[in-house]
What does this fold into?
Amino acid sequence: MKNDVLQRLTAARPAHLDPDLPTPSPVREEELATVMSRPRATHRARATARPRRVGRPLVTGLALASATAVAALVITDTAPERPGPSSSATSGSGSQILLAAASHVERQPAGSGTYWYVEEHIGSLHKVPGENYTIDVRTEQRYWTAAAKNKYWSQSVDSGARPATKADEAAWKADGSPTSWKLTSETDGIVTYAGKGEINHDAPGGRADSVPYGEVPLRLLPTLPTDAKALRKRLSDLVDKDYNAPQRVLDQIVVSTARQLATSLPSSPALRAAAYRLLAAEPGVRSLGDVKDHTGRTGYAVALPSPYESAPELRLIFDKSTGLPLGTETVATRSGDGVSKGELLSYTTITAMKWTDEAPPFDTDTPDPGPVLKSDR
It folds into this structure.
C-alpha cells in the first residue's frame, strides 16, 4: 500500500497545514514537495524545525543550520587523477554546464572503502528580530554511510553565528556586539556567537535515529541505471510505488532524489554523471557562470528552477576540473517574510567527500538528542 504523503508531514507540518484549516491546495502541495524532498533530518531537527513558505527555515542549534566556512579546507581525495576534457561550458547554458560536469565526473576514480564519508559546512542566514542586520548560523555536519548495510552515522557541531556580511558586522557592532540572539519565540530558538560545540551524535539503532537518507535505499544504489533516461524512469517507478501524491509532486521528488545522487549519496562516478544529465534535461536550468563557494574555491554553477512561485531557487556549484560537487545555495525568488528577492537564504559547502575504512568515532547517540515527538514513539 502506498504511503499517504501527509504522513511525511507529521513531524514537520507548519500550523497553516493543519488539516482542519482551509489552506489553499497549491500551498499544501508546495509544503508536501518540500518536506518529502528534504534530506536527512535528525530527531532533534525534526522537533525544532519550522518551515516557512518563503524558504528561510527557522533554526535552532542543529536544526537546518549552518557552518564554519574555513577557507583552508578543500574536498578530500578529489584531485583529477583522470582529468576530464577541457571545456568552455561556463559560458554556455545551464544544461551545457551540467553535461560538461557529467563528462568530467564520470572520469574520476570510483574509490573503495567501508564508509562513504561526507563533511559539510552549512550556513543559514537570518535577520535578527528588531534589528537591521543578518547573522549566519553555522553548523558542521559529518556523515558516515555504510551503503552495503543501509546504515549511516551523523555528527553535528554547532559552530556559532556571525554577522553575514561586512555591512551586517558594522550594524552588529553598533548594536553592542551581542553574543547571543533569539530567533524564535521558543526557548531553544537562541543561537550564540561561540556556538555550543558538539550537539548531536546519531548512530544506527539509537533513540535519535534519522529519517531515511534520501528516497532510494542505499543498498539499491548499485542497481540504478547509469543512463539518464533510464535513471529517471527507475526513480519515477520507485517514487510512484511509495507515495500517493499528485504527479507534479512525484516529479519533484524524482528531481530531489537526483540532486541527492549528484551531491551527497555514495554514487559511483557513472551514476553521479547520470544524475547530472537527468538534471540537465530539466526545463529552465540556467547557467550562473564562474562563482566562488563559501571557502573561496572557484567553480561553475547552475540554478535549478523553483518548483513553485514562492519556493527558493537551488544553485549547484561544481569543481571546474573534476565536476565533483562543491556545494549548494538557496536564494529567495520573491520578496516578503523578512527577505528580499535574490537574497541568499542558506548554503552548504562540501569540504570532504571520499571512501574510507576509518569508522565513525562514536557508536551511540548523544545522551540527550532532544525532545521526542509523539509521532516518533
About this structure: The longest strand covers residues 115-127. Residues 1-91, 207-212, 369-377 have pLDDT under 50 and may be disordered. The helical segments are 25-37, 43-48, 94-105, 166-174, 228-242, 247-263, 269-280.
